[in-house]
Specification:
CATH class of the largest domain in chain A: Alpha Beta
CATH topology of the largest domain in chain A: TIM Barrel
Shape of chain A: globular
Number of domains of chain A: 4
Distance between the termini of chain A: 41 Å
Structural class of chain A: alpha+beta
Oligomer: homodimer
CATH architecture of the largest domain in chain A: Alpha-Beta Barrel
Low-confidence stretches of chain A: none
Strand content of chain A: 25-35%
Largest sheet of chain A: 8 strands, parallel
Radius of gyration of chain A: 25 Å
CATH superfamily of the largest domain in chain A: Glycosidases
């Protein structure tokens, strides 16, 4: 049951794809507050849980903090932050009642979920224009499904994007790229793609290639493709101000950049120095910007990541000038607490300052809007620009696309990565917890930078993180310039890392199948225990275990020097303690609390009753993964059934019945296949 | 067994109090490396644990990171930091062999403990002058005791310093102070002291009182003392440069400040703006600086906290001038990645820049030394200045003293708090883990700011933190200006907070007794399970439970929305699930892993077999805690014995046999007291 309420004159965000008639009267479950801002509140029962908000800090249960939907370039992700890169204004309250709410507005929204008072939730909109949707259902999964149906089908990447991917800000030349790929291949470390961060561009200009560093870019792309490795370049939001640069000149000529009140282009500073932002909320400008991706597609590229599109602003040019003047004026003065704080405050004010958002405008179909009113849409619409272009330029072929910033609706055009995390055990856990919240709002193709982007990784952290990421659709090792080099081949325990990677390629048939079924059916791929085991009183406490697809529960080790962990089983399960594709032991555990050992080289996987985990024999890249023979780990109580989805991984015809194979394993280990005829080695758990 | 090795010409740090003959030959257990720096390394077995380093980030077992002893004003304490406020160069390796090492040098030292290679530890000294002590013993506790005996008896505060203490940067006037105290008293929230942060001073000048804000300072101190509340002002390291300010003028006249190469006083900027640093490594200057505390002692003050004594440097004056010029020169330029990073890098270079440490000097008994060579001693010697002065000025009376920065040896003059933590669940856990590491290096009177100093607290975090702090000797709620107000009377669930505070006052006799026995016997008050249960294979994994004294094990809840936790018992124990002094339930658990519920209002305490926990009936301040009647929670298997230490809490005669009372409880609940005759209510667990 979905109801829609309109407040003010909401901007058409295109978050939803279904037209729903407006309801009259009060928003159910929430009380509209009197006050300056449009605001709604409700009481929370002491046992109520609150789920949602997609990409944000803290737990799966969001109770006990205030969050703010305001997309921002925020690399610290500590507990006290309120905003990350995305605005995902959907949440579900479960407890005394069960309902969901989606606040569809492109401006800033705050969610006080038991912060001011433990038993109170308040949602406040900075601008009073919004479509508010309220969902009712029997359980969280019902409500999520209602929401997901409303917002449309999730983006589906090519199959190779489920392989292992390597990235680092710091690969500068063709030689760097070839060498990294070679080191993987030589050491039998499976790999499907390599990333180009900002250094491949000429002076950080979008859609250019630095021909000094990469004179044979097209050949490199082709060579690597023959080696089954895809090259994935970055695209930034800001377009460099530079005479003679075609994108800049076309944008100026056609008025396609965001402008200030007086009609002059707004100038911000990012990597290239001064840039203008493409006005992706203007349909014509969006089409033009999307068309630019053709340059790289024509060079053989078939994947992109859109970055800095909150948009990140190092400085607005006017403010920079003023701050420099303010600082210069302090020369010779005695800087005490107050005046030194003026100095530091001026410096801090430079970047991502919300006041600057009020200084530039978009030409939207609904007229001119200050950026501040539509801020949270920028990343979405930049990625939409690309997605719409891909539909025009290569309609029959999947292109890899994911973005840093996002809003609900962008999930139809691309995935996201979880932004600039750090090499912290804490961030590995945070990234893990984000997965189901992101699934709730339609983002299925997601993952955090493995090993951590900022700060220096340790070998054990990288190993544990790789194990944790075994089921993450986007499995990418990425790190920042200046941090410890963290390619998997750089560490002493390379065997553990290699074995873990081969397990990933073994898991690919299951992982791809579960991902695709979730995408095609508007389902969640990662689920917290509490969503499935709704009657289990302890399940809501479990935030470090997730169901990955229909068969498997994961329970990674998140603690340094940990040699095992506590695992809670809501029902009897079978465990696989995996060291490599060939080396594992298995056991059964009854429902309840268990302490289970897991050495540094061991990953704990759990198979639910009457479910199975299908595994290939692995491979060095996704195309090397064969499915004519597979191993099946089946935990059969009476009869285990698995619906296996597979396709060519590139095309967009998803509903072919040939894609489905039904595998049935009986208690004696005999099996049948309906659909494709595959040879199975059954291992009963 | 202690051996001492001399390298170069070590500076006499006065960390140790015993003279030990030097050994010749190689340092045992470690291999001296060839290379530019003095450096030692050893292999680590895969099961080896490494304990120590006092105040630092990460776990109790320090494996898996590189740490750096370089005292610094560092408020973030995230996993990637290497240095906090202290330099505690002592660690113990337990595994294949068991040995301790103390690197006594006042310069920077790095400890790579399985960072570069998981199985390797390397200690590197920036300056090659050091006394290195190596300890051997049967177990960690033996080695710690050897070390503690070598470095001398830990500081003992007055008994009232074990009561609850309230602080906030932001109390500005006498009215503020009176109001906070009144709110505690009116609401029956026990309190023993209130803190003055920097605002009580006139223009942030040490040893002055702002007479506009606090015209009747002496009366306030007296009034509050009559209300059993002690006023504890802050003292900063930097002395304001201001004509007519006596401390400044005396310091200049006598050459008591740190100077640059050319003899000019080194000028840094801190709260008051320009300051000079007292040369506390010069014995005459140290005596003079210590003498200044008399001003406040004479006003009735009997406690102090020494802050900013790493020393914290917001800027060196010369560098500030140069940075302002560099920034001004950027005006009008196109700031791209490289040049904007120059801008931001220049700003970051201002504070706590190690290059500045080479620009000023101390006049030590061993001649003129650049600050960089002796950096880690500054906080120690500032606090020593005070401690030595108190010995002269009030030899028979304990004065509360604790410091932010420290080095081994300072533990004889004062305690420490754990610096500027944040309102993070993660920091509550970090502060908990630091306690045993600090005890290892002699710091017994310690605690972290309850609720967190920076960032905004949540009500549940404050409650859980108060519960966690029940056994912390220094139990202080402290927060920064601009953050959410976090006095305990500001929250809805005041009853929980009140009950928790009353439990603290109930625990005081036990807590004080255990603290004093640890101090007088060079023992640890907080111990990890693995130190006591040396044969328990799982105990080293447990970093969120601690033994507090001889009878009790604590197991706080560290997770938001947590309704219980896993607890590991290395032996059978009795549990008290405490809601208030009168409201609790008890149970026994066998050795092993357990999941135990703990509601937001509940604290889990565990009593060891044949041990007991003595508890008073509570009180509103420490003097209100009576011990003629006590409750005893005894877990008697055959016979429980407790040696109860008590004294007047102010004097320094600790060895009076009258201070000890031996309590014996038999299995039937009958008891005897040898020493003081106290009335006990025995509750058998």
């Amino acid at each position: 049951m979905i109801r829609k309420y309109i407040f003010g004159s909401p901007f058409q965000t295109d978050a939803v794809v279904c037209d729903i008639p407006c309801s009259q009267g009060d928003v159910p479950h929430m009380k509209q507050e009197n006050g300056e801002n449009l605001s709604f509140s409700c009481q929370l029962g002491s046992a109520d849980e609150v789920y949602g908000l997609g990409e944000n800090v803290r737990g799966i249960n969001k109770r006990g903090w205030r969050y703010c939907s305001c997309c921002v370039d925020e690399p610290n992700h500590t507990e006290d932050r309120q905003s990350l890169y995305a605005a995902h204004n959907f949440l579900v309250v479960r407890g005394q009642t069960c309902f969901g709410i989606f606040v569809d507005t492109p401006g800033v929204v705050t969610f006080d979920i038991g912060y001011t008072h433990l038993d109170e939730m308040t949602i406040t909109l900075v601008y009073p224009d919004a479509a508010i949707y309220v969902f009712e259902g029997m359980c969280v999964l019902d409500i999520v499904k209602e929401f997901r149906t409303l917002i449309g089908r999730s983006y589906i990447p090519p199959k190779w994007a489920f392989g292992f991917q390597q990235s680092r800000w710091g690969y500068k030349t063709e030689e760097d790229i070839y060498r990294v790929v070679k080191m993987h291949r030589e050491n039998h470390l499976p790999l499907d793609s390599i990333y180009l961060d900002i250094d491949y561009m000429e002076r950080y200009k979008d859609f250019t290639v630095d021909r000094e560093r990469m004179p044979h870019f097209e050949k490199m792309v082709q060579d690597l493709k023959e080696d089954h490795v895809h090259v994935v370049p970055i695209i930034d939001a800001g377009v460099k101000v530079e005479e003679g640069y075609a994108v800049y000149e076309e944008g100026i000529e056609n008025g396609y950049f965001c402008k200030e009140e007086d009609g002059k282009e707004f100038t911000a500073g990012v990597w290239p120095g001064r840039v203008h932002f493409p006005d992706v909320l203007n349909p014509e400008a969006r089409k033009w910007f999307g068309e630019q991706y053709r340059v790289l597609l024509d060079m053989g590229v078939d994947g992109f990541w859109n970055d800095m599109n909150e948009p990140s602003i190092f400085y607005a040019q006017d403010r920079l000038d003023s701050v420099i003047d303010q600082i210069a004026a302090l020369k010779g003065r005695n800087l005490n607490l107050e005046t030194f704080e003026q100095f530091m405050g001026a410096v801090r004010s430079l970047s991502d300052n919300r006041e600057d958002y009020q200084k530039f405008y978009h030409q939207t179909p609904e007229g001119r809007m200050s950026h501040d009113r539509v801020h949270n849409l920028f990343g979405y619409y930049m990625t939409r620009a690309a997605g719409e272009a891909f539909e025009r330029l290569c309609p029959d072929r999947r292109i890899l696309m994911f973005s840093r910033s996002s809003y609900v609706g962008m999930h139809r055009y691309g995935g996201i990565w979880m932004g600039d995390n750090k090499s912290w055990w804490q961030h590995m856990l945070l990234n893990y917890k984000m997965q189901p919240s992101l699934n709730m709002v339609g983002f299925l193709y997601t993952g955090g930078d493995i090993g951590g982007f900022g700060a220096d990784v340790t070998e054990d952290l990288l190993i544990r993180w790789m194990q944790m990421a075994l089921f993450m659709p986007l499995m990418r090792n990425h790190s920042a310039m200046g941090t410890r080099q963290q390619e998997v081949y750089r560490f002493d325990n390379q065997k553990i890392l290699r074995d873990t990677l081969h397990v990933r390629y073994g898991l690919l048939p299951y992982l791809y199948s579960e991902f695709m079924k979730a995408a095609l059916g508007d389902e969640m791929y990662f689920k917290p225990l509490s969503f499935l085991y709704t009657e289990d009183a302890y399940a809501p406490q479990v935030e470090d275990q997730l169901l990955a697809g229909d068969s498997v529960m994961t329970a990674p080790v998140f603690v340094q020097n940990g040699k095992g962990r506590y695992v809670y089983l809501p029902e009897e399960m079978a465990m696989i303690r995996m060291r490599s594709l060939d080396d594992y032991d298995t056991d059964r555990y009854p429902a309840g609390h268990h302490y289970i050992e897991a050495g540094l080289n061991e990953t704990l996987l759990f198979v639910r009753p009457d479910k199975m985990l299908i595994m290939s024999d692995g491979g060095e890249y996704t195309e090397d993964v064969h499915t004519d023979h597979m191993k099946v780990f089946a935990f059969v109580k009476t009869n285990a059934v698995y619906e296996w989805y597979d396709d060519d991984g590139m095309g967009k015809k998803y509903d072919d019945p040939e894609h489905m194979t039904k595998i049935t394993v009986a208690a004696d280990g005999t099996y049948t296949c309906e659909g494709r005829n595959i040879r199975l080695t059954v291992e009963l758990l």
